[in-house]
Fold:
Amino acid sequence: MTGLNATHDPARRSWVESANAAGADFPIQNLPFGVFSQGAGAHRVGVAIGDRILDLTALEASGRLVPSPQERVFADGVLNPFMALPQAIWSETRARIADLLDAEVGGPQGLVTVPLVEATMHLPIFVRSFTDFYASREHASNVGSMFRGPDNALMPNWLHLPVGYNGRASTVVVSGTQIRRPNGQLKAPDVDAPSFGPCRRLDIELEMGAIVGTPSTMGQPVTTAQAYDMIFGYVLLNDWSARDIQVWEYQPLGPFQAKAFATTISPWVVTREALEPFRVPTPERIKPLLPYLEEGSANNFDIHLEIDMAPSGAAPTTISRTNYRHMYFSSAQQLTHHSASGCAMCTGDLLGSGTVSGRTPDSLGSLLEMSWNGRDPIAVAGGTRTFIEDGDTLTLRGWCEGDYRVGFGACAGTILPAVDYGR
Ligand code: MN
Structure:
């Protein structure tokens, strides 16, 4: 358990002036890790500070930041080698970076910083495996009552374990990547046979992604306290979903092609340590949990979340405002359950939280819920929508708000038309 330390001190200011502005996403107390390039240059590891990036690959090469005496962990332009180091090294490195960027302690001499607007952001981690959960009671209840009626909204297992499925790591992409509308098998309830064609009920899922830093050993389950500490950081995650493909294919083994075509994450990994001041408990239990899932500490986080939708050429409309704190199972509980059978967890594993929905109609995390499966169009600038149309851009945003803001930046994607099979 990390606890609060000097890196969380709200009085600290950076010599990067933009980091000190009220409401800045990346103040000196945040220090999220990402991977960037400039022009045709190589991928480099950096930390966001205000409107700039501190180049950690350069800092390590110059010998001013040495997370590991054995190897250069920032030389490969991906976070996995650093995330595989002991948790104490994550903290020491964060403290060292905070000192270098501090207006009192540090200074710009000899440090390479790059304007954010001049950088191209890349996938920050090599995604080893992607698992997606279903941990919002509000979301599961909404979807369940839509398809099974309000009396059977939650399946019998739901209050006892974090339901999940193993997704695809190969199609996790960074914010800004264009997403092609999937083709798939579709079958309306009133026809006898399926057809093949473009998804007509393309949706988003507003989620947080937890990134595993410390691996676990096959055959060795981890406790919730160990799981909490194993998580390196968090990103915004859009689990794009083809609802019409999903409804035909999902029984009995769960989502497959409906979720396999794309998952978008935000480029900046906000460390778990940066989120420490914003810890909150999970909501009150409806039914007691089995002991292996009980938590002795507050392992959820108070993260404000928003969804913007913008048809091609139109201004964005904010269509949802919610909060990660509503999640019934924390990511530590999800990771614990994932390892409970003896499943090995790896550096670079990505755990999707499940769609984050609140209790009110303006706090839902999917268009499926907002439009109630296409029945009720929602208003956006430039028209109305039930599901996503070609050219639409969807953007997730997230931030913690306290003495300062810890922002996640944006997680965006624009939909391209489906591949034409020449039907
Ligand atoms: Mn999902």
